[in-house]
Amino acid sequence: MFDVFALGPTGWGDEMLMGAVMTVLVSSSSLLLGITIGIVFAACKLSNFFILRVIAEVYTTIIRGIPELLVIYLLFFGGSSAVMYLAKIFGYIGYIELNAFTIGTIAVGAISGAYSTEVIRGAVNSVPKGQFEVGKTLGLGGYSLYGRIIFPQVARIALPGIGNVWQITLKDTALISVTGLVEIMRQSRIAAGSTHEPFIFYTAAIILYLLITRLSNIFFDSAEKKYSKGYVSKEAL
Amino acid sequence: MRLDLMYESFFKIVEGIPLTLQVVSISTILGIVLAVAVALMRISGSKLMSLPAYYFVYLIRGTPLLLQLYFVYYGLSQFEFIRESILWPLLKEPFWCGIITLTISTGAYSSEIIRGGILSVSKNYIEASSALGLSRAKTFMLVTLPITVRQALPAYGNELILMVKASSLISIVTLMEITGIARTIISKTYAPVEIFLVAGSIYLAINFIIVIFVNLAERRLGIEKAT
């Protein structure tokens, strides 16, 4: 029964593992893109400009109220023509096709970004106002205030929330299998189709996802512990 | 932007709304029953009950819904004994596979919400009601349950929206609900932006109505909005 998972050309073991690597790669690049988007839109939501706040609010409402699959279809079918349209403005006329990895990263990154926005906004809000005031009193501004004083605190508070966003992002990448990117989901479909053993391969896929979840939980837990050094937990008080 | 195409496709996509609502409501109702059972198992205090419930929730929350759907739809049908069992009339239909998958998924997620709600009921209330001579069943029905509903409702409103979004996945197993129809039109007309706007607005409208109803229910139950 386990012959089908043999490594090498006779089995699907190495293909499934490569699928898992692809899932981790596309999830992490989506998470990074999402965090970048999240920082920008959290800044918009916290800004004094009404129009920026509205734009950020519209973005998070749309992403959180519309199925992920629709967003993926939009980018899958419309992504290349949008890029070609932009290229035309800059004077490049020709055919550009985005590969499945790029489209997947952009789509899942855009979804993940909406959740990151809320996490980062909440984290910035929970940094005590005094920290900003003291920094300004000391004559700090720009990078020395936001980069060296506020950012480390925001990062620490946002970490558990980002851990949750990671779980959502990881699961959302299964949806981009519909665009042809060969990650766990797609690979197990291919293998299930060619061996007529869907049960075994979907079970293997479940195990791979649980394994990635488990490992990333360990990673986030230890990161949380590391960045909480110097802070006394509530239970200890 | 092709407005005429948007206008035409609107009437086609609208035809998918009944199926979406049907799937969401059936699996939500079945899901609540499952969720209450799982939540009660988890807080039962007996390891024999709580461990399976814990692993069930862990399994469902740790894997993508699409994979669960494939597992139910393609994975289970591989076996002869399932094809001969009494469940086969259900498992061969994509509609029921969708319902089963969504029920299991929402059951796992909502069991955590309900568990949180039950655990938030202060021990004092339970003690007071047993001092008044209420039986354990009566305490649960008259004291614990109403407070749990109040506590869990805001989070459950979110879960309902997630369900509407999740129902779009059943289009992958050939069911023509909102997303399924939208996808067909996109591949025929190659107008992804227009169709996205139409289908997206329909989803936003459905979710907006859900939010309104949940808010009304919250107000009736006297839940204070956190500001």
Tell me the CATH architecture of chain B. Orthogonal Bundle
Largest interface: A-B, 39 and 41 residues
Question: How many domains of chain B?
Answer: 1
How would you state the average pLDDT of chain A, rounded? 89
Main sheet summary of chain A:
none
Q: What structural category arises from helix and sheet content of chain A?
A: mainly alpha
For the record, what is the CATH homologous superfamily label of chain B? MetI-like
* CATH homologous superfamily annotation of chain A: MetI-like
Q: How many structural units, i.e. domains of chain A?
A: 1
Strand content of chain B: under 5%
What is the rounded Rg of chain A?
21 Å
pLDDT under 50 segments of chain A (min length 5)? none
Put simply, the count of helices of chain B is 11
List SSEs of chain B in N-to-C order: HHHHHHHHHHH
Question: Considering DSSP H and I runs of 4 or more, what fraction of the residues of chain A is helical?
Answer: over 70%
| Overall CATH class of chain B | Mainly Alpha
The DSSP helix count of chain A reads: 8
Poorly predicted sequence stretches spanning 5 or more consecutive residues of chain B: none
CATH topology of chain A: MetI-like fold
Number of strands of chain B: 0
Gyration radius of chain B, in Å: 21 Å
Can you tell me about this structure?
- The complex is a heterodimer of chains A (237) and B (227).
- By secondary structure, chain A is mainly alpha-helical.
- Chain A has a single domain, classed as Orthogonal Bundle (MetI-like fold).
- In chain A, 76% of the residues lie in helices and 0% in strands.
- Chain A has helices at residues 13-46, 50-65, 68-89, 100-125, 129-137, 142-172, 184-195, 198-227.
- In chain A, helix 1 packs across helix 8, helix 6 (142-172) runs antiparallel to helix 8 (198-227) and helix 7 runs antiparallel to helix 8 (198-227).
- The radius of gyration of chain A is 21 Å and the shape is globular.
- Chain A starts with 12 loop residues before the first helix and ends in a 10-residue tail after the last helix.
- The mean pLDDT of chain A is 89.
- By secondary structure, chain B is an all-alpha fold.
- Chain B has one domain: MetI-like (MetI-like fold, Orthogonal Bundle).
- Helices cover 80% and strands 0% of the residues of chain B.
- Chain B is flat.
- The model of chain B has no long low-confidence stretch (mean pLDDT 91).
- Chains A and B meet through helix 2, helix 3, helix 6, helix 7 and helix 8 of A and helix 3, helix 4, helix 9, helix 10 and helix 11 of B.
